[in-house]
Amino acid sequence: MTNRTTFRVHALPAAALDTIRRTGRDAADQPVEALLAGGGEPLRCCLRDAEEGEELVLFGYAPPVAAGPYREIGPVFAHAAACPGPDAAGGHPPAWRGRPQVLRAYDRQGRICGGQLHDGTDPEAVIAELFGDPAVHQLHSRNVVYGCFMFAVRRAAD
Predict the structure, then answer these.
(1) What is the predicted pLDDT for the residue at 1?
(2) CA 152 vs CA 23, 31, 92, 93: distances in Å
(3) Cα(155)–Cα(158) distance, integer angstroms
(4) 86-97 per-position pLDDT tens digit
(5) Looking at residue 158, what is its pLDDT?
(6) Is the Cβ–Cβ distance between 128 and 103 less than 8 Å?
(7) Residue 38 CB: number of other CB atoms within 10 A?
(8) DSSP 3-state of 69
(9) In CA terms, which of 33, 64, 74, 147 is 20 to 30 Å from 102?
(10) 0.85 surpassed by pTM
(11) Residue 138 in 3-state DSSP?
(12) Measured distance CA(89)–CA(107) in Å, rounded
């Protein structure tokens, strides 16, 4: 396809996580829920699944899009305390390779302008295909069953 190094995957911003952990309030000004992981919860702080017994928080998060009708708040899990974060290389999370996901495309105005379901075997090809449309500013990876935000993907130059 095209050069597969032209994008970066972004976990939840550390500053947003710090605020949520410090205030105990989420994007909807609701209380953050503390819980112990049952195992398998997708962690948006480090982009891997939780192991049983890890201390987590569950809270409402507004993914990064411009304010408007497509902006939403949805549930996400993160470690209760700061963690090392995701792989610094910024590629597709290795722990989630093979996991079916929806990639939802957004333009600079924060409007949905496309998307695609993929089976997780070659997410880079799907990302490259969607970024082939110059109107696409960023992508959001979404859980197939629940529709929850997993991570953002942006062009490396953005």
Answers:
(1) 37
(2) 24, 24, 10, 11
(3) 5
(4) 988 888 999 999
(5) 62
(6) no
(7) 12
(8) coil
(9) 33
(10) yes
(11) strand
(12) 25
- Contacting residues for 130 by C-beta, under 8 A, at least 6 apart: 103, 105, 114, 115, 116, 136, 139
In terms of Cα–Cα distance, which of 68, 71, 128, 139 is closest to 103? 139
Structure tokens that stand for 147 in this block: 């529709």
Strand stretches in 28-146, DSSP E? 33-36, 42-43, 48-49, 55-61, 74-79, 101-106, 112-118, 138-143
Distance CA 125, CA 153 (A): 13
For residue 18, the model assigns a pLDDT of 96
Low-confidence residues in the chain, pLDDT < 50: 1-5
Q: What is the dihedral of CA 71, 72, 76, 78, to 10 degrees?
A: 40
Containing H/E element for 149?
A: strand 149-155
User: Taking a C-beta distance cutoff of 8 angstroms, is the pair 103, 141 a contact?
Assistant: yes
| pLDDT attached to residue 81 | 97
The whole-angstrom separation of Cα 15 and Cα 81 is: 13
Give the sign of the dihedral formed by CA 42, CA 43, CA 46, CA 51.
negative
